[in-house]
Amino acid sequence: MATHRSLACEPAADDSFGPVVDACARSFDFTLLFEQSILSAAPTTVFLLLSLWRIWKLRISSHKTKHSWMSIVKPIAALALIVCQITLLALYTRSNTIKTRFSISTTVLSLSAAMAILPLSYLEHTRSVRPSTLLTSYLAFSIMLEVPQIRTIYLIPGQLDLAAAFSTVMVVKAALLLFESWNKRVLLESQYCSLATEATSGIFSRSLFLWMNSLFLKGFARVISFDDLGPVDSKLDSARLHQVFCAEWELQDHNVKWPLLRTSWRALRWSILSPVPPRLCYGGFLFAQPFLINRATAYLSSSSGTIDDDIGYGLIAAAGFVYLGIAVRMGIYSSLLKAERLMFIILGFDGLV
Fold first, then answer.
1. Residue 67: which of 187, 183, 176 has the closest Cα?
2. What backbone torsions phi and psi does residue 188 show, to the nearest 5 degrees?
């Protein structure tokens, strides 16, 4: 009886924004419309816009890596993702597949993102010294945000084919994420092999400070010397700062108010602004912390007869997401900001002036 009521209620319940689905369909779940519009379409749209900008920027860069097995595996994985997204779109055209008003458009967006990954992955691999921050961030967030949608589809009766297709997409994205986050230092052309370790590390390595492990191992084995520290990041190089400053100074109108301040801002604007997004995310996770604690306290203080296991598992997942987010975002913020780094850059400018 409950199954028949769920089947009759589900299409209408999942085609509303929610975000919580009506109890007649499922308990403790989001609606499909919310998952497809907010958790899928929104980040995919942002990625598409940023990928166009990134492709335009990389097209004029020089080649920085040698040909290797990774040059073959990455396009194959990207093509596999395109095929999986086309299969998913074909499944949504069937009459017996549960869908919302956003299902087709969201799947088309995901297919467009998969098609954008193919040229972006090639350009990032051949013309960047480090793993792509944009690609790895999108794939990681996409995998995490698609977990609720896959869970929802598995809970809906008669949608096993759709659930299997979504699971395949997630597996392919996970494989592509592994390939895209692979360090490329051994693949770099000879003129780029002397770069600092941090400069060739990906977003995960810099967020978790994994790039420092080799230095820690050296320090554990012996007393480290100055040569063990490796080269300094090129962003701190005085000669590079001098070139950037002189180029901006030549473009600056010296008759306007505060020309030196305007020049310094244009030369350092990305170094100053880059910590802002991770800091905002860090603040959001901190803001969510008291709400999580309050809900967990209320759940634990409730009587044993009213405790719902699904809510408990949800709180465990939320706690992991919040505290892992705090740690990772604080790591990204610290690695981008590094008050000492920014201070050294500014002092370098003072020395130039």
1. 187
2. -70, 150
CA–CA dist 247, 257 (Å, integer): 19
pLDDT at 339 (0 to 100)? 47
With a cut of 80, say whether residue 172 has pLDDT above it: yes
Give the C-alpha separation, 115 to 268, whole Å: 34
CB-based contact 142:43 (threshold 8 Å) = yes
- Cα(260)–Cα(253) distance, integer angstroms: 10
pLDDT tens-digit series, residues 29-40 = 788 888 888 889
- 297-305: long-range contacts (C-beta < 8 A, 24 or more apart)? none
CA distance 79 to 92: 20
Tokens of 116: 């954008």
Closest CA to 317 of 29, 75, 70: 29
At 353, the pLDDT band (50, 70, 90 cuts) reads low
> Which DSSP helix (H) or strand (E) runs through 324?
helix 309-337
pLDDT digits (tens, 9 = 90+) for 251-280: 887 788 888 778 878 877 777 777 777 778
Distance CA 314, CA 310 (A): 6
Of 298, 305, 240, the C-alpha closest to 267 is 240
Whether residue 150 contacts residue 167, with contact meaning beta carbons closer than 8 Å, is answered with: yes
pLDDT in tens, 40-88: 999 999 999 999 999 999 988 888 888 888 889 999 999 999 999 999 9
Within 8 A by CB and 6+ apart from 131, the residues are 124, 180, 181, 182, 183, 184, 201, 202, 203
The CA dihedral of 149, 53, 210, 343, to the nearest 10 degrees, is -130
Q: How many residues does the chain have?
A: 353
Under 8 Å between Cβ of 9 and 24: yes
CB 301 within 8 A of CB 345: no
Local structure of 22: helix, strand or coil? coil
Instruction: Scan for tokens 């592509």, then name that residue.
Output: 176
